[in-house]
Amino acid sequence: MGRALLLAFLLPALALSAVTAAGAEGGPLPPRDAWARDHPEDNGQKVDLGWSESPSPDISSYRVYRSESPDGPFRLVGERSTDAFVNYLGFVDTGLTDGVTYYYRVTAVDRTGRESEPTPVLSAVPEAQVFQAAVTVRKSMVVSLAEQRLYCLENGRVVYVFLVSTGTASKPTPTGNFCILYHDYVHPIPKYPGTVCYYWMGFYEDYAIHAWPVYNGVQGDYSSLGRPASNGCVRLDPRLAHIPYYWAPDGTPLAIIPGRFQPPPLPVMGGHVSASVEAPSREWYFAEGFTGAGFDEYILVLNPGEEAAQVSLDFMLPDGRVER
């Protein structure tokens, strides 16, 4: 009994040691130039990893192992398929503890199942650079596949609606409940050399909300926006993609639904575009007008009563900040 228990405890620690032996017996070469660093400009709990392709041919995937000790044991935390993932030369490790040093090793696996020796040990310490303790607004997002639209909500109220293009029938966008895991302003796509996606918000495996791709420095034709056109991601108008990118922090809940989305009723009492109002209200919400080309937007407030009234106006800036 004692020997069986000892073997059970030793197996996890030996998992990566066996990889070294396999790689030394004619397996593929490990990936090159591997690195690990704190994910920049975020609210913490994430580490970025990247590497260059293994010199060996027919690599099917790359595996990422993590430990809290440089001597191991190392546990498998992610695998990037060269067939299924557009970014198989990178991995974002999430759900970590800020201030703790994490150690990583990366291996390559060929199509016969042989695994390379691991890379040298990498290390990184996640830290928060963006703090949102003072933010009290509850934000959420909904993507409707039927409507090809992204809805952004604050405290259950729709504040932005964007036309999108989701996955095609052969490469569908996954449905379900997710959250924004991380942000990448510039996200190269190794599977398609020369392709870059800006304003990338990863929410599940290799899927993200991002601007329409740029190909070899040229903005792709997004005239099909509003129809399924992607490899599974949610594509945005490149002129507007910065708005949800800066508006939605890491951790923002995201629901992707197959049907139509029924937005909650607007919190305006009696408002009408042409017939004015039918009832007084202490709180009003105004849709954003055109703000490009030097166009300024004004709100005129009149007080028909004889008593003075106090009025405060809050404006939401393009980066999501609210200014009074």
What does this structure look like?
The structure is a single chain. The chain is built from two helices and 20 strands. It is mainly beta and 324 residues long. It folds into two domains: 13-124, Sandwich (Immunoglobulin-like), CATH 2.60.40; 139-257, L,D-transpeptidase catalytic domain-like (Beta Barrel). Strands 8, 9, 10, 11, 12, 13, 14, 15, 16, 17 and 18 form an eleven-stranded mixed beta sheet that branches. It is elongated, with a radius of gyration of 25 Å. The termini are far apart. The relative contact order is 0.13. Residues 1-14, 17-22 and 268-276 have low confidence and may be disordered.
Report on the biggest sheet.
11 strands, mixed
Please work out how many helical segments DSSP would assign: 2
Shape: elongated
Please state the structural category: mainly beta
Give the CATH topology of the largest domain.
L,D-transpeptidase catalytic domain-like
CATH superfamily of the largest domain: L,D-transpeptidase catalytic domain-like
H/E element sequence: HEEEEEEEEEEEEEEEEEHEEE
The total beta strand count reads 20
What oligomeric state do these chains adopt? Answer: single chain
Helix content range of the residues, please?
A: under 10%
Please sum up the structure shown:
The protein is mainly β and 324 residues long.
Characteristic terms for this protein:
single chain; 324 residues; mainly beta; Immunoglobulin-like; L,D-transpeptidase catalytic domain-like; 2 domains; eleven-stranded mixed beta sheet; four-stranded antiparallel beta sheet; 2 helices; 34% strand; disordered N terminus
